[in-house]
Amino acid sequence: MSKPAYKRVLLKLSGEALMGDDAYGINRGTIERMVADVAAVANLGVEVAVVIGGGNIFRGVAPGAQGMDRATADYMGMLATVMNALALGDALKHAGVTARVMSAIGIDQVVEPYVRPKALQYLEEGKVIVFAAGTGNPFFTTDTAAALRGSEISAEIVLKATKVDGIYTADPKKDPNATLYHTISFDEAIAKHLQVMDATAFALCRDQKLPIKVFSITKPGALMRVIMGEDEGTLVHV
Ligand code: UDP
């Protein structure tokens, strides 16, 4: 078997990816499938750190957050990512993977705090890390947390797992002629106004020369094909 294309990756999973076809929350079958994909990659010796979103839980409480102070609502969103991270850590454990959850906000009785040297040590030991609470700051997103943590741990690539299989020339739901980009440069993506990640996350990856691969986590075997360097999804390169 050929060798993985990467030694260390940062996987960004949106909270909504955990919902499956449910309206909100965590779908058991979906999280188990996802964890099996992550386990297969980790078992190859690839060092994996995951940044998990919170949209699946926060969306459920968002109506109640209307009119709320933005920073307060964002802290609620970050707490939602902590719940997802705990579920993911637990599912990884059941799949036989040693995982550590690290939080960007202090919640020590529940999750250990994010400490960079400790995170690097875990990765070197072959443990999967789940980064919870995004960047720890309101007004940011977990995409930005992925770019930030990816840069901090010197990941070779940010793998942005979505429900679509990459970046298209136009919205494939609206335009039947839309085609998938296999590769695209940061500059081209900006010039064409393609939304890859939010602007802050995108700018950070570009500055740090950290490539992004956008792919579908719902497609069987896609994560493994990405890891093996096969033509899957869209690669945003420097
Ligand atoms: N959030 C935040 N700071 C961060 C990361 C997340 O304030 O560094 C909040 C923000 O309110 C966001 C929510 O947490 O809407 C959930 O994160 P995100 O929307 O990125 O999750 P995803 O869409 O990937 O599930």
UniProtKB/TrEMBL annotation:
Q: Mind telling me what this protein is named?
A: Uridylate kinase
Cell location: Cytoplasm
UniProt source species: Pseudoduganella aquatica
Amino-acid positions noted as binding UMP in the UniProt annotation, renumbered to this chain: 54, 74, 135-142
What HAMAP family does the database record attribute to this sequence?
A: PyrH_B
- Domain Aspartate/glutamate/uridylate kinase residue range list: 7-216
Q: Which reaction does it catalyse?
A: UMP + ATP = UDP + ADP
One of the record's GO molecular function terms = ATP binding
One Pfam entry name: AA_kinase
Q: What keywords tag this UniProt record?
A: ATP-binding, Cytoplasm, Kinase, Nucleotide-binding, Pyrimidine biosynthesis, Transferase
Q: What is its EC number?
A: 2.7.4.22
Whichever gene encodes this chain, its name is pyrH
Q: Family assignment? A: Belongs to the UMP kinase family.
Q: How does it assemble?
A: Homohexamer.
Q: Which top-level enzyme class is recorded in the Swiss-Prot or TrEMBL entry?
A: transferase
